[in-house]
Sequence to fold (485 residues):
Amino acid sequence: MSAAVVVVAQVVDPEMPMLTLHDLGVVRAVEVSDNGAVRVTITPTYSGCPAIEVMRADLRAALHQAGYADVEVCTVLSPAWSTDWISAEGRRKLAEHGIAPPDRLGPRRIGPVPLTLTPPSSTVSCPRCASPDTDELSRFGSTPCTALRRCLACSEPFQHMKEI
Amino acid sequence: MTDAAVNDNVYDGLAEVHDGDARWAFGAGFSDVEVEITAPVPEGVDPVDLAAYCLMLGDDALICSHRLSEWVSNAPELEEEVALANIALDLLGQARMLLSRTAHVEGSGSGSTAGSASSAGSGRVAGCAGRDEDGLAYFRTEREFRHVALAELPDGLDFARAIARLLIFSSWRLALLHRLLGSRDPVLAAVAGKGVKEVTYHRDYAARWTLRLGDGTAQSHRRMQAALEAVWPHVDELFRTSDVERRLVEVGVAVDPAQTRAEVDTVLDEVLARATLARPQRSPTGTLAGRAGRDGVHTEHLGHLLAQMQSLARQHPGASW
Fold:
């Protein structure tokens, strides 16, 4: 593993700093050319994710600090990011910080997207007391990737990283 | 930045953290564009048509996003405000990619921060080369926008109106995006790939609120039905196929919106029935000699919307922080 890869792997997500960009699964490639130029490819989580600009700047700053003068950070949209790309380590860190990690989605189904008129039966456990008895307060939380839930056992509200 | 660095203020502090790059104040000022945006126009595809098509889908998202964002600080509950703002943000992201693609295909779209600032003024002129996503969003006039009327209708602070529009808009957009997954244009396919996931959440959100309001109290039922009646005359326009779309369908780039009608109807019928609401029997809004949103003919509401959305950028073209 090249030194640049190690530097990139340590840059954290600006909105969920307990996760590295590597944990989040947004780093798609790190290429170092013979003359030392680094090209990092990342993918946005959501189309409108405002953090992508900060991620770019943080990646550039970290690589500059590590002595790489020639740094290019580009983004690819396809294939679209999925919460399935969050690493096991990332899931563990999320739960540790009170954010319920997303379920695994598995492969995409074919055909029209089905309508879900009632919140799906909960498979989300409370990150504090581990009770499976939780419900959804709002589909949309403080960042595009989270939903707001509450635990019916310990009454604590918590964030859930919703599956996408 | 060297001059600015002398001044010790919070903005300079931010700029330093961000590697010394100045930010254009109003738009994105993307310093690196998505790899796909600069992909070549697929063989056999007219770049003028492709640019126009990306502009249509981009404007739908941009204008609807703006209407949703008007709920920030006005929604009935904080949770709904956050939800509507999140949905607006997703659509804004889709709009940015699509407008960037338009700009690139038009033969510009260098997309640099400096480019944003300097091209902002030139974007005033219709069809002028050198526009980027910000130039397209902030420096076009009413007649140059290509979205459907449904996107621009004001909600008048009526939450039911916001939900009625979002239900119809997201059901239609999801059906479009789902079919665009197979587009020969890599940007349209990529935007669709992300958009399908996002708009699925938007549609579910609107459908659940439709259920809650329609099958709620007598008052909420009455207001949800009234909201549907108010937006319904603009549903027909969603399924009209423009000449640009017709030509691009033939080369495997676009989706024929008429083909989405059955699917959208099925979704709406299911939601309305479950919500004890009646499908409105309203005749479609007329066109102006056959022209409507896709041709740049809009309702009287667009001027006011653009005045709000564009005024700051137009008063301070090229400003940065």
Residues 186-214 of chain B form the longest helix (29 residues). Chain B touches chain A through 54 residues (CB under 8 Å). Residues 26 and 312 of chain B are 8 Å apart (CA to CA). Chain B has 13 helices and no strands.
